[in-house]
TrEMBL record:
GO terms for molecular function: RNA binding. The lineage of its organism: Bacteria, Pseudomonadati, Pseudomonadota, Betaproteobacteria, Burkholderiales. It comes from the Bacteria. Pfam families: AmiR_N, ANTAR. This is Aliphatic amidase regulator. InterPro entries: AmiR_N, ANTAR, CheY-like_superfamily, Sig_transdc_resp-reg_antiterm, WH-like_DNA-bd_sf. Residues 131-192 form the ANTAR domain.
Amino acid sequence: MTRSPHTPQSLQEIRSLRIAVVHPPDQDRVELLEHLKRIGCKVQVCWPDLDVELDAIDLVIMSVTPQTAAYHHAWLGDKNAPPIIPVVTYENPVVIEAVMQLNAFSVIPSPVRSFGVLTAIAVTLAQNKKHKSLQKFIHRAEQKAARQRTIELAKSIIMKTQHLSDDEAYQVLCLQARDNHALIETVADEIVKSGSIRH
């Protein structure tokens, strides 16, 4: 039984990408633009810096040379900054350090050829998605740990001021949360801030 041909989801996503190409006007840029347009991407050219809103693009392909490595891009520090694929001509310490600072998941070597561009985009998108998922997981874990610390602190205050056991202090927290129609961590936070239990 033959399978019907279909376009993988990742390739469909790539075709709908809005890509900013931050690259000087040269043959590499010509090759890059032609290939991206063949893929079907929406391309916007910028130079020497990104001059589009960050929420208007999904990916940046940027020239990184010894000359541009020292250039400060203010948008790189933005939490909404899109992933970046550097186009590199040299492999020297300056360029390698610049690529590392960009947190790039892949690079496109110069001279630019059509081979490898699609793979670089696919790898970057996949790794960036994993990175964002990991960051969200870490953030949720940190929030959960912070809430648990607050509850433990509130229990210790109740235990000290009310002369109760750990379990009894937790029950007091639960009752306070129920009576005030609030989350237990909200009640715990109020107790920690005031240093006493509200009656």
